[in-house]
Amino acid sequence: MDFRRDDPPEYGTLHRVEPLVRRVMARNPGPFTLHGTGTFIVGDRRVAVIDPGPDLPEHLTALEAALDGLEVTHIVVTHTHRDHSPAARHLHDLTGAPRYAYGPHGAGRIERGVQVEEGADHDFAPDVAVRDGDVITGDGWSLEAVHTPGHTANHVCYQIRETGTLLCGDHVMGWNTTIISPPDGDMGQYLASLARLLERDDRRYLPTHGPAIESPKPFVRGYITHRKLRERQVLGCLADGVRRVSDMVGRIYRDLPERMHGAAARQLLATIIHLVDRGEVVCEGVLGLDAEYRLP
Question: Could you tell me which of 93, 26, 99 has the C-alpha nearest to residue 61?
């Protein structure tokens, strides 16, 4: 995968990224957001806002300025992490436009209440529930919903049907791999969602964080290969008698700063749960970071 971490954008300024799409960047850089959240505006005069972003006063002010003279007809959310959806409430109050998303943040099967990345936006609820294959139609543009669970259970990508560009949220990113963190993150679902993208004809990807992906299918294949490599590394650890997630982290993520080890552990846990589901790994006790694992 050809990861790119382009120079930081000019925050709070409206930039056109392709004929039907403009972007405003929020100043919320970090280890999970790169330079920050990119809020996309689709259309010319009557527009949709995709992933309004975090509830930061500077970003809300910049978004209002960018939308001056435009009519917001739709507010569309890819998923409910706090770097993506909280500003939807402000934008809804400002414009009256309905909010579209798959649903509120979902609950998982283990370790309920765990917060990772920017955390879950439990206050968000859509006005219109979007399902796979639904088409959201506006003035000169239309968005096809592609349900891609894995990063979160409610993650949805949206293809701009007029151009073939996929607004892919955090499902695929051009600067790094995507974190899959239980309980809401599910590695089995994520791999199935990646495989589904290989069956599609999307021309280009626009992630919420980082640069555009110009050659989608080779990039997605690289993502899948990366996950398969992690599976082999986990199985190798177990074959050598390394049975706890915490002991695997330093061995597998040798060059990762220690401050990121917590996120890495949750990534490995997602991989291990997937291997348990497939019968390739056995859990001693309750699935979780503190359990011991072994080969069958």
Answer: 26
Q: What is the DSSP string of 43-72?
A: SSSEEEEE------HHHHHHHHHHTTT-EE
Structure token digits, residue 223: 């993502």
Where does the pLDDT of residue 114 fall: very low under 50, low under 70, confident under 90, or very high at 90 and above? low
How many C-beta atoms surround the C-beta of residue 44 within 10 A? 13
pTM of the model: 0.93
Are residues 189 and 270 located together in one domain of the fold? no
Q: Say yes or no: 142 and 235 in one domain.
A: no
Cβ atoms of residues 155 and 8 within 8 Å: no
Kindly state whether residue 122 falls inside one of the protein's structural domains: yes
Name residue 20's beta-bridge partners. Answer: none
| CA distance to 144, 158, 169, 262, 270, per residue, from 148 (Å) | 12, 10, 10, 25, 16
Q: What is the average per-residue pLDDT within 181-187?
A: 91
- If one counts the domains in the chain, the total is 2
Instruction: Assess whether 120 and 248 both reside in one domain.
Output: no
Q: What range does the domain containing 243 cover?
A: 228-294
pLDDT confidence of residue 111: 47
Does any domain span residue 223?
Answer: no
Answer yes or no: is pLDDT of 61 > 90. yes
Exposure on the CB side of residue 111, measured as CA atoms within 13 A: 18
Q: Which two tokens stand for residue 102?
A: 């798959």
The DSSP call for residue 23 is: E
Distances (CA, A) of 237 to 74, 266, 277, 296: 48, 16, 18, 14
Which among 80, 79, 59, 97 is positioned nearest to 148, based on CA atoms?
79
The partner residues of 48 in beta bridges, in order of sequence, read: 42, 74
> Which of 1-10, 59-68, 111-120, 240-249 is predicted least confidently?
111-120
Domain CATH code at residue 268:
1.10.10.10
